[in-house]
Structure formats: C-alpha cells, structure tokens
Design goal:
two-stranded antiparallel ribbon, 13 helices, globular, about 0% strand, about 350 residues, mainly alpha
Amino acid sequence: MEEVLGFALALGVTAAAIPLLARLAPGWRLIAQSGPRMQHEGSIPTVGGLAMGVAFLAAYAVTGLMSYTTSLSPLLAVAVAITLAGGVLDDRHELRSLPKFAFQIVAAALLVFYGESLLTHLGQLMSPELFTLGRWAAPLSIFALVGVMNAVNMTDGLDGLAGALALAACISFGAAASFARQGPEFAVICITAGATLAFLGFNARLPWRRQATVFMGDTGSLLLGLLLGWCAVRLAMSERPALAPITAVWILALPIADTVTLLVRRSLRGRSPFRADQHHMHHILIALGLSSARTTALLFWIGLAIGIGALFADRLGVPQYAMFYLYMAGLVAWGCVAEVLCRRLHLSAP
C-alpha cells in the first residue's frame, strides 16, 4: 500500500508542479537556450528536476509516516535537499567543477557516514573470495555515489533519455527489492519511478510533440543519480542482499559504460575528460540514422533488457566474478567500437 501511495503521490505532484514551475522559470533564470550543444529550438524551462525533487520529498514524507518506511533514515531527504539546492544553483549559474563536485560529495558523504549507505565489499568480484574494502570503504562509497550521479548527468543529452534510463533502472531495482521483500528500498524506488514517469510526460518526444517542453537540468539528473546510487548500495549491502554489487553495475550498465569509456577516450586523445563533445552513445546512434525518439526508445529497452538479464543471472547463481569479467570485456569492446564509429562518422567536439 505504501509503495502504491508513494508512486501515485510522486506522479501527481510532479505532473502538477512542472507547469507551475515552468511559468516561474524565466524569473528564476532556469531556462535553457538553443545552441550548438542543444537538440532543441527556443527557450526551454529547466525545472523538471526541481519538480521531481519536491515530489520526492513530499511523497517520502507522507509514506514515511506509514508502516515500515519509518525505518528509512531522514538523512536521505536531507541529501536530496542538498542535491536540489546545488543543482538549482548549477542550472542557474553553471557552476565550475569544484563547487559542483563539492555539494555532490557532501550529499554522498552524509549518506555514507550517517545514512547506512556504506559499501563494505564488492562481492566475489575477481574470484570466489569476498572482495572487502576495509579502510577504503567510506571513500570508495562516496566515489561510487558521486560517480553514478555524474553518469546519469552525462546521459542527459537527448529528450527523454536520462529519464528513460533511470526508469529502466528503477524497474530492475524494484524487481530485486520486491523479490527480496525489502520494503523501505522498494518504497523509495516506487517514489523515484513515479516522479520520473510524470517528468517523461513533459520531456519525451511523442508523435504529437516534436521536442521536450521542459528539461530536468543538472538538478534532475544528479537527483536521479543519487537515488539510483543509494538504491544500488542499500540493496547490495543489506543483511539479506537483494543482489550482488556487480548486478547493480549491470543494471546501470549503459550510463556507467558511456561515462567511463568517454572519460578514457578523451584522456587518451590528450583532452580534458570533462570537456563536452559529440561522442556519447546517443550521438553515435543519431549519426547512424536513428531519430532522437527512436534512439531514446532503443536505449531504454536495451537498458531494461540488460538489467532484467543481470537479475536472472544473479538468481541463477552465475559467478559474480564471471559477470565482472564479462562487463569489463563489454566495456573495452564498446570503447573500441565507439571510437572507430566516431572517426568514421566524423563526430567531433561542437
């Protein structure tokens, strides 16, 4: 019951808040203008993330008054609020890297040190032996959370894409939490899914709408990354784990693979790994002839299929180290294929 209420409340609040915030966006300077890196025309409000954040906090507060969801730490709401505040400042002022990473690290550290979101091991990562983190647990947990936040952020380059990939991850994480009867985590996943689904109603390209009417901005992508990272850690580190850590990586396979391979490829070219270009997964698919809408749909279904497949592999007892080595092989293969395609398609920095 709490999960249904949380989903419906997040869905409704997000759907109601977006039009209201969109009218206020010009006065708040939360507007994205068209430009070389943009796939849209005209001015688009970047308040989708703020709407999702407000909806999440509202739904979290209401469901937190009911049953087992009270076992969730209120610090998750504090971390979400920090991410929202920092994200809005970033969307308005385009913060430099240092302050941008600073508020992400603060939000992640809060969850790691006080919110029971510590990654103590990586499962049977490279062999049948448990790969424990020891004294590195806290810094690597913060690195993982911030990494997922930025991985989701880097997928937000096409109408509906970041939201679609986040929704695919929510479905897989939700299935894992449901099978393992992890009610509090399942409730948070449902709230996140409800807010994301409502946002996609304004952001995805549809037959009757040629472009998004609102963007999530960095506020939204960082928020979704924080929540997905939190879900991954909680589900893998609980007393009765719902999944292995490497399974969580597979569920987030596309954002992580796109981000890691891009950072490495940029570095190998002697460029800043954080300098934007047109070498993302979605840029390559569009250059190959797919429309924006079909690219988003294709990546959503691929992400969902990979996540569900990883859950089946986890359930069937496929060795975790085998899943790790397979993922690493896929990562290297995609990096090589992507680089070749970018060269042949003459994709470059805008």
